[in-house]
Design a protein that fits this description.
The protein has 253 residues and is mainly α. The protein contains 13 helices and no strands. It starts with a helix and ends with a helix.
Length: 253
């Protein structure tokens, strides 16, 4: 059994190692151009934010990957793919994330992310056998929840674009959301992260509620907002804060 001192030492060195890993995502050239930014990056971001216990390093890596993909920041994506894989996100989960985000951030963003990831997968020996099946056995459908969602969308938008209504049902909620390579909680997590990074808080109410139904805690959701302030910017996060507040309050009633 580990003593409290030994456990504390292990936690300290683990945090230090993680901070070092995160620091590799910050180019050395920043110091020659913006030393203050380099300081914030190493002390506040790598040294504090990424070590926050409210959200696991694995989840932070997945959230960051979703935000960068959404923002088409492919020049920075490679180092975060490495970080995510080292933090425990599997190649299949990252693959499934970009497939999922194609529907929520656009095909171009997902394709660009795939191109940035390909050399890393090749270098790590990731093959097709490690990636999600094209046509897997789907997870069980929550028929009551899907019926309520479909009724809302049909009644509001069937006269606007039946194509959107039908594709939302058939491609997203009867297929994409039921694919097993990404746990429902993680699928919701990257969806909410993408909506925040894209500056689309009006879409958050449904998806943040769904995320919490799928197991995301309020503490984790709050930590995600704090984390994304650094990668999507404070204005986008503050635009999302009232929606999160409303969701949290409605669920506590």
């Amino acid at each position: 059994m580990k003593t409290p001192i030994a456990a504390s030492a292990i936690a300290f060195f683990a945090a230090a190692a993680q901070a070092q890993d995160v620091s590799t995502t910050v180019p050395n050239a920043i110091g020659a151009v913006a030393p203050a930014l380099q300081s914030y990056s190493s002390e506040a971001l790598a040294g504090s934010v990424w070590s926050g216990e409210e959200l696991s390093v694995r989840d932070r890596a997945l959230v960051t990957f979703a935000a960068l993909t959404t923002r088409h920041e492919t020049e920075n994506l490679g180092s975060f793919v490495e970080l995510a894989l080292d933090a425990g996100v599997t190649p299949a989960e990252l693959s499934e994330t970009i497939t999922h985000l194609a529907f929520y951030t656009g095909w171009g963003n997902a394709i660009a992310a795939a191109e940035a990831m390909a050399p890393i997968y090749e270098a790590r020996g990731v093959t097709a056998d490690d990636l999600p099946a094209v046509d897997p056995e789907l997870l069980p459908l929550n028929e009551e929840a899907e019926a309520a969602r479909e009724d809302t969308v049909q009644s509001n938008y069937a006269d606007v674009s039946i194509g959107v209504v039908d594709n939302t049902r058939e491609l997203l909620f009867l297929d994409l959301w039921l694919r097993p390579a990404l746990e429902p909680r993680d699928r919701s997590l990257v969806t909410v992260a993408a909506l925040i990074a894209a500056g689309q808080p009006e879409q958050m109410t449904f998806h943040l509620n769904r995320a919490m139904d799928n197991g995301l805690t309020q503490e984790e959701a709050g930590a995600m907002l704090s984390h994304l302030a650094f990668y999507a910017g404070w204005p986008k996060v503050f635009s999302a804060m009232p929606v999160a507040k409303q969701v949290f309050e409605s669920r506590s009633e």
